[in-house]
Design brief:
This protein has about 90 residues and is an alpha+beta fold. It has 3 helices and 6 strands; from the N terminus they run βαββββααβ. The protein has a single domain, classed as Uncharacterised protein PF12112 family, DUF3579 (Alpha-Beta Plaits, 2-Layer Sandwich), CATH 3.30.70.2340.
């Protein structure tokens, strides 16, 4: 079980039946909303970035994103809920 991180949400790429969520690069695609390119490399924002935790593809979402970009934060949460992905951490009230 993935442990919560302070001031962050973790969205796990695991479906309710225990299968890996597809496409396998979903977290990178979501993180692309705030990423930048420099010297031919992608740089993810500390507010939204992909991670592998306990051998699972995850999306780490800083709770600060809810204030910095409310529409994007709501879109990410809606995506997770629609696809029934596990959200580790406490959702802020917005």
């Amino acid at each position: 079980m993935i442990k919560p991180m302070p001031n962050k949400l973790i969205i796990e790429g695991i479906t309710p039946d225990g299968q890996k969520f597809r496409p396998s690069d979903w977290a990178e695609r979501m993180s692309g909303n705030l990423s930048t390119f420099k010297n031919q490399r992608i740089h993810y924002s500390p507010l939204l970035y992909p991670s592998t935790i306990e051998d699972r593809n995850c999306l780490v979402v800083s709770l600060s994103l809810a204030e910095a970009n409310p529409p994007l934060f709501e879109q990410i949460i809606a995506f997770a809920q629609k696809n029934r992905l596990s959200i580790v951490g406490e959702l802020p009230t917005i």
